Model the fold of this input.
Amino acid sequence: MAFAAIAAAAASASAQSTPAPAPAPGTASFTVFTGTSAIGSEEMTVTRTGDGWQVTSNGRQRGLTINDFRLTLAADWHPRELRIDAVLGNQAISSTTTFGVTTAVTDYLQNGRRASVTHQISARTIVLPNAFYAPYEVMAARLGTAAAGTTFKVFIVPQTEIEVIVKSVGDQKVVTTSGTVSLKRYELVAMNPGGELPITVDVDSRSRLARIVIPSAQLSVVRDDLSSVSSRPVTYRNPGDEDVFVPALGFNLAATITKPAQMSGRVPAIVLIGGSASTDRDETVSGVPLFGELAGQLAAAGYMVLRYDKRGLGQSGGRPEAATLTEYAADAQAAVAWLAKRKDVDKNRIAIVGHNEGAAVALLAARDKKIKAAVLISGAGTTGYELILEQQRRALDALALPPAEREARIALQRKLMDAAVTGKGWEGVPVQLRASADSPWFRSMLLFDPAMAMKNVKQPLLVIGAREDTQVPAHHADKLAALANLRKKAAPATLVTLERLAAEVRVAPAVSDAIVNFLKQALTLR
Done:
């Protein structure tokens, strides 16, 4: 059904000791992103009525036009009525949901047919129909004083009610051209019938929605004042960090350099290259700022470290829509060239460190002779096509699906990837899947072959894998090292296999220790 939920949201607290502050009325515009590509927008308005609240919106995404979204609520945030008028593809969609104290009756028109369905709901539940993000304004208001461990109820219209748990609450700051915006960050887990779904929701000081992130769908919905290239979340800061801009091809990369505490003459330098999706310069994963912490650890060992926002992300310029791994490699080379020109950097001792997709980018960038050594962390040892199939099979194993359904899902994944590579055969691929897969970046990632790229890499290589890495298992590090050892006129690769790259709150010191020990020899650092 068109109303089938692709994500769940948090909202109605089962127990809140202190009432949440009322949100500031007004209108805000949001941009919807898949990865770093903008796929639509939604304008949301929160209005205080005589006896309650009203949330309205309109907008457009790929395949969906929102003519009118209108949610009416009581003063205590219990929903009263939801009206939707939209177009999905070429089909008109309209529905009206009327809420009682414990019931919700939805009358809807879809594919020219009218139907009605009744569900039992909890008092003060939050309603969330698929692909409409205005209800997150209600969620933002309701989260208010919620603490870690709070349980919320969410009604996915018109299907079922689920629970959402607040896993953590923290502070977030975003630097914009008009100043610093302070946000509350709520890490949530939606207990969907198909499994747990992590969601991040940022709320500003006016109890208004600022941002939604659903990592598994590579989906983010960001308020426009926070989504421009002049805005950047400040997730981590080392003592003495300095923000800089690095010239790239036609735009600037926004970056941070971390210097050794004691600078004497020219020092060796390292460029950190981030992974896939919307990774900023700190590369925060599951709450751990991997690159922010790694930069501090490497600087403490005597290196100047540069980390940067990917093009089109954070404060970096450039447009990611047409970018492939090759363009991202050019950005890394630009960062190396900028460091090589600094009077406090030894241009003969510059290394690059790539994590995840950044390992593939590092292999491509290493054609640059200014790069004297490379480190590959959790890089794939197979083509991207093979890696995704491996990841999907592992995920399906955990679901214990019937064989027929398992094979159908694998067949759909193959069909999607074949279409992304060839540009043909999109028939039968759901619109939302195509929207996230039909891009130059995805095609380049599927076609990337480390065996071919490795032939052009002559520098000393360190390959790091982690046994507990569920995205890129440790056997990929073994394959990368084996490929590196087939190179002619190049030293054997150094292979390090760790238990994990990061604990719950910090990067494992073994990661920086391995890099420092390797670079002492690779860069002849004494």
